[in-house]
Amino acid sequence: MALSYPTQPGDIDHLIADDHAIVERQFQHLEAGRGDRRTLVDQIGFELSLHAFAEEVVLYPLWPELGMEDANHDARDEHHGMKELLVTLEGGEPGEAEFERALTELITLVRHHVSDEEGEELPSFRTKVGPERMADLGRQFIAAKRQAPPAPHPHAPDGGGAAEKAAGKLAKPVDEGRASATGKKKRLATDASGLLDPQAQAIVDAHSALEPLPFETLTPDQARKQPGPDAAVRKVMEERGIDGPEPVGSVEDLTIPDAAGGEQTLRVYTPAAPAASGPLPVIMWIHGGGWVLFDIDTYDASCRGLANKTGAIVVSPGYRRAPEAVFPAAHDDVLAAYRWTVANAARLGGDPARVGIGGESVGGNMAPATVLQLAAAGEPVPAAQVCVYPLTTAEQYGESMEDAADGRPLNRALLSWMAAHAFDGRPEAAKDPRIDLLGLPADRLTAMPPTLVITAERDVLRSQGEEFAHRLQEAGVATTLTRYDGVMHEFFGASAVLDKAEQAQRQAADHFLRAFADGR
What angle (nearest 5°) sits at the alpha carbon of residue 432, between those of residues 131 and 297? Predict the structure, then answer.
């Protein structure tokens, strides 16, 4: 169930509800008999272990002080029961009577616990402590997860927080060593739902085999050191003997102004075979990463593919990221980079009258946001735009927030983590029209050029991306919407090893080429 009241992405109750949604979806896979049963149970054990530890360290010690003593006892008893069942599951195998009995009991117990917590205890807690304190408790909750043992310990001390911390510190290295020795650690970050096609599954398996820690439990600096989606693709390429990266005519990094009086990098890709002699069309491709993670290197393959498939120059801005530079820094930098690109197109060998824009994830948000700002300023807008699995609202919008809550590499908890950092200290940013594209009136949407929206089936952003496309269509904008089934967020740049990524890149290239031909 979802929380019945509004929260901010970094609030402790919001984070707890994200964890609940992820585990619930994994339960549904198990009940439907799909996916890798052993891996799903291992992942549930890992997630519940971190979650329970963080609640016991941060949340439950506060409840007696607030007159919630009964809830505190009940919740701790339920956690103990969950841990006992997880120990049974860890020692058994799917299909064994004891394993299946423990799993059935665990699902029932967790659902009861979640119903009580989300329906009664968390709303009461929020009222008693006040909403202004929830973000600080959320930060403590995430920090506690970093210290948590990744396996259940039902007989650990119950000391109201301090004893749990000490027990976790001792247990964590032992649990991690056991997980590595058994190979379990290499499966914890994969998608075990059975809903991905084989090529996509190979990529998320490769990423998991690199043993990344959960991004959503780390600091931004720590998370940026983890292997990203590009590392997973390179691993699959190496395993298959595929050379890379895809060669293009040239790649050059320029230094251009950012919006704050500093500098940003603009990477310029010239195609291996230009579309024609003379000035070439130009595409600005904006990288994703939730405004916090990743950079132009991470999305290098997308830019190379689009340059060669369109015969156009592709430019990629290295905008500032949060939390060092929170909203609207990235949006402002992208707008500045676009204006610089148009003004200097001839210097790049490009045609300023044939410029397109697009991006992936939050890049797919900043592309239309840039168009809106250009239109408001009375400046020419791009000839076409492509939004690949775009974020179009800060709300947890649509059914994909439930049915893809456990998706990889982007799950619901990571999405909240990114938003909390991107809007840190500026919760009102979520309602800014540059973020809340779904809140825009139709008369503003009419400024958009012909648009292609690409979504992925196993992606928490699927519903909001598709709703954005529908609203563009209703506003009279020439809009094409394509959902690629059996693939995940971040699939677009994996064309070397994923046929549907190659198809999506070709579709995007064709969309740009049609617009450029019309603009001649």
Answer: 100
Q: Angle at Cα 342 formed by Cα 385 and Cα 449, nearest 5°?
A: 25
Q: What is the pLDDT of residues 70-125, one digit of tens each?
A: 888 999 999 999 999 999 999 999 999 999 999 999 999 999 999 999 999 999 99
Show which residues are catalytic. 361, 459, 489
CA quadruple 156, 63, 165, 414: dihedral sign: positive
> What are all long-range contacts of 222-231, with beta carbons under 8 Å and residues at least 24 apart?
223/292, 223/293, 224/293, 224/294, 228/293, 228/294, 228/298, 228/409, 229/203, 229/298, 229/409, 229/490, 229/493, 229/494, 230/297, 230/298, 230/299, 230/300, 230/301, 230/493, 231/207
Angle formed by the axes of helices 229-240 and 300-310, nearest 10°: 70
3-state secondary structure 183-218: CHHHHCCCCCCCCCCHHHHHHHHHHHHCCCCCHHHC
Cβ atoms of 376 and 507 closer than 8 Å: no
| Radius of gyration (C-alpha) of the chain in whole angstroms | 24
Q: Which residues pair with 346 in a beta bridge?
A: none
Residue 410 and residue 459 in contact, taking contact as beta carbons nearer than 8 Å: yes
Instruction: Tell me if the pTM is above 0.90.
Output: yes
Task: Please compute, for residue 320, the number of CA atoms within 13 A of its CA located in the half-sphere on the CB side.
Answer: 23
Give the whole-angstrom CA distance, residue 384 versus residue 379: 15
Burial class for 262, CB neighbours closer than 10 Å (0-12, 13-18, 19+)? exposed
Pairing of strands 451-458, 479-488: parallel
Write the pLDDT tens digit of every residue in 196-232: 999 999 999 999 999 999 999 999 999 999 999 999 9
Contacts 24+ apart (CB under 8 A), 251-259: 256/336, 256/337, 256/340, 257/336, 257/340, 258/319, 258/320, 258/332, 258/333, 258/336, 258/337, 259/329, 259/332, 259/333, 259/335, 259/336
Using DSSP's 3-state secondary structure scheme, residue 456 falls into strand
